[in-house]
Design goal:
By secondary structure, this protein is an alpha+beta fold. It has helices at residues 5-9, 29-43, 81-94, 123-132, 148-155, and strands spanning 54-59, 63-70, 73-78, 105-106, 109-114, 117-121. The strands form 2 sheets. Strands 1-2-3 form a 3-stranded antiparallel beta sheet, with helices on one face. A 3-stranded antiparallel beta sheet has the order 4-5-6. A hairpin with a 2-residue loop joins strand 2 (63-70) and strand 3 (73-78).
């Protein structure tokens, strides 16, 4: 950072400036961060044609790694354990990052991972909506929800 011109004219070259606002609070910070991480993903040969915050990397015929970026949070998944471990190690080396382990909550969605199953819900969001509209005492109604995968297993 350089001192302002009028500050230099007054023979204050040997003085230190104190910032009134932290640099990390600047409006352009998210854009700068996005440009840095986007460049990294492009160098690593991640591609996405439709979504600017979704990065996909394919190696060979079947190894795929998918990364979703939301501001400064990343979630990733892949079908090759080596590929995901290498990605995690490189990200932690390249950027100052920590691994929070398995995902439990992301953008208002609760995630439970057990064995080879993943359950997602918006229980807390729904409870907050019910409170907001004073409907916490309303009668619940069962809604059938079956995934295509489950239907295929039952049919075949």
């Amino acid at each position: 950072m350089e001192q302002p011109f009028d500050f230099l004219v007054k023979s204050n070259k040997d003085k230190i400036l104190k910032l009134k606002k932290a640099l990390y609070g600047l409006k352009q910070e998210p854009r700068v961060w996005y440009n840095i991480i986007d460049s990294y993903f492009n160098e690593q040969r991640f591609r996405s044609k439709s979504e600017p915050t979704l990065y996909i990397k394919t190696q060979g015929n079947s190894n795929t790694l998918i990364v979703s970026l939301y501001v400064d949070d990343l979630i990733y998944m892949g079908n090759n354990k080596e590929m995901t471990q290498e990605f995690k190690k490189d990200m932690m080396k390249t950027f100052k990052m920590i691994n929070l382990g398995l995902m439990h909550y992301f953008l208002g969605i609760e995630i439970t991972q057990e064995n080879e199953e993943i359950f997602i819900s918006q229980k807390k969001y729904t409870e907050n909506l019910l409170k907001k509209f004073q409907m916490t005492g309303c009668k619940a109604v069962a809604t059938p929800f079956v995934t295509n995968e489950k239907l295929q297993k039952e049919d075949g």
